[in-house]
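Can you give me the bound-state structure? Components:
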Amino acid sequence: MPAQQAPAGDAKPPVSLWERLARPTPAPRTTLTPQRIAEAAVAIADAEGLDAVTMRRLAGELGVAPMAAYRYVSGKDELIELMVDSVYGRLPLDTPAEGWRATMRTLAVQLRALHLAHPWTVRAATPFSLSPHQLAVPERAFAALAGQGLDADTTMAVYRTVTGYVHGSVTAEITLETLRRERGWSDGDQTRAALAPRMTWLMNTGRYPNYQRYLHEATRKDDPDWQFETGLDAVLDGIATRFTL
Amino acid sequence: MPAQQAPAGDAKPPVSLWERLARPTPAPRTTLTPQRIAEAAVAIADAEGLDAVTMRRLAGELGVAPMAAYRYVSGKDELIELMVDSVYGRLPLDTPAEGWRATMRTLAVQLRALHLAHPWTVRAATPFSLSPHQLAVPERAFAALAGQGLDADTTMAVYRTVTGYVHGSVTAEITLETLRRERGWSDGDQTRAALAPRMTWLMNTGRYPNYQRYLHEATRKDDPDWQFETGLDAVLDGIATRFTL
DNA sequence: TATCCGCCGGATACAACGTACACATCGACG
DNA sequence: CGTCGATGTGTACGTTGTATCCGGCGGATA
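Here's the bound-state model for the whole set.
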């Protein structure tokens, strides 16, 4: 009798990760829990980047065998879903309501802060992943936008516009910051110095005169806060004018 | 003298990938060239996704030994840089000038089209990677924005805002589209049907009333063109009003 | 109290990956 | 004709995700 308790013949429509999570924990005596797994993995990713999160490394950090975590996640993809949901759970979404614009603005700023605190999230987070804490973000936005006379599609367009800007903008910021960190460049000047050979060669091709002029004239190249918020306010301006909010 | 200084070492200052590429090809009779490598890799990624691009697979496609490509790229990272630069080279950036707004709009639309045609680029492309064809994008934008009375920093802010929106927005779009394709769901209804179990469970928690209302009221959920362009026009509106262009 | 069963974590194993390294080969130039 | 540098080959190693089988503990049941 080969106790074949494999995933069985039928596909895999069974309970989702989040549904399993929500069930009361069968016993409080187990050494491993999804929360512990998520926190350990997040700690590794925060400290050494997403690539350092290895099933073996994670197991080592938890003091268990390499395959142990597979009791709780079906594979590495689900582990990352778990990690992302875990950090999204730390978002302080309970700020008081103050009108749609202020709410959307703080939401954007909070999302950026979250990504900066956990740079691996921009690579790992799939927008619209159906995880509880990630869903709380559009929920918050929709709540703030309700009652403004917008239909559902436009509400979604507003939400997507703002989060699209945030995600793209922060991705660029973090890509550069990560590159800088892993190469050991401390400030912007040192970064430019390290990039100088490539850059000067490219500029000497003479094909980028406008870009070159920017390089000479810009003075706030190293102020990501200013860059982010300037763009954000422009985006919010645009939403206000186009949808007459 | 410990002088270990991990990042210091100054290990790889040699000529960059692009500098090497620009040198005259030493002999026109070699079977392998960076162009051929890039095209083969792009073809694989277009057909089967970025994960299918393997050094061995690429070598097989080119009819050479697994390690052969390493004569031209220092590793897989450089291979991907090469791939991205290759597809950026297909951008038709020579459209006539028609004012900053029209230029920025078509640039955004073209970038979206490029990402949709090669979905792996949103994962692979690091913004501000210093490759010739990628640099041509900000060059084009700066050219269109020059003479509008903006200082260099604001010009960059405008560029970053638009490309940030494009990148983030298209990333979301492609993530969903890719998911749908690899699961074999044909249209939006089938996607929603497949996601229904997860979705209904989440909705039944009662924690997302506004999101749930959106699900019921929305009618253009499956029109990504409309979503993208609506957001884009809002962003451009915002830039125009905030910087009085 | 004795028994059984289902959940848990451990151990082993495998295929695929990126890539280091030494070797063979071939055209060009002295 | 001999030498040399550039090009592609062959082999091998360490690491990764994960399939599979096992032993054992604990609580419900008899």
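A couple of observations. The two ends of chain B are 59 Å apart (CA to CA). Chain B has eleven helices and no strands.
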